[in-house]
Specification:
The chain is of the alpha+beta class. The chain contains 7 helices and 9 strands. It has 2 domains: 97 residues, Alpha-Beta Plaits; 106 residues, 2-Layer Sandwich (Alpha-Beta Plaits), CATH 3.30.70.100. The relative contact order is 0.20.
Length: 225
Amino acid sequence: MSNDLSLFLLAIRGTLASATIPDARKLHNSTAGHPANVAAAQGLGDVSHMVYVPMEKPKKGAGEFLILDIWNSMDGINQFFANPTVQEQAGQIFIERDPVVWSAADGFATYHIPAPFGMNDRIVTTARGTVKSVDEARKLHNLSIVKTVGKARKAGNLSHEAYFRMAAPGSPEAKEFFAVDVWMTADNMMGYYEDPDFLAGYDHMFTAEAVTAVWQHPTGEWVEW
């Protein structure tokens, strides 16, 4: 048995089928959050399941929804989502969805910093785009992150993680990059992302402007682990 630990991020972004967030919560908790389904997912390697909605209120319906799951087994992911019942329940939650599996970006700077006592809010930002070159992106990314980690922390940042899409080596999909940042406050967040030292790296990594979004935990009690 191997002692190596590999973690994979399953990100599912889509539009909720429910008319309201309370309706979506009820449906989520009775499907993805049902004890039997939770046990099945955890048994196959799903070590974390978190849900988010955009910071901005939707113009109609319940709006967008983001699921971020951490798995320790690609075989487990494939087996779990090959289950027709799982696919049927996902179709009940979302009108449309984009599930993507990501693996840690090799050599890209990441960090996790503890939160001070009482700072319990969590805001998540995501950035997704195709890099021009993985090697060049690594250099630019690390230049930006290493230089600005102190500024990020002062602005309320807790963590930064970098991923590439699980895809065939050399394929265009394999150059698709995904960054996830977690914040304990949004007060100075945008000021950090507009900082010239941060943009010096990120502005030149991508073939086109990255797709960014800001997320927060939805109201009410959602089954997470």
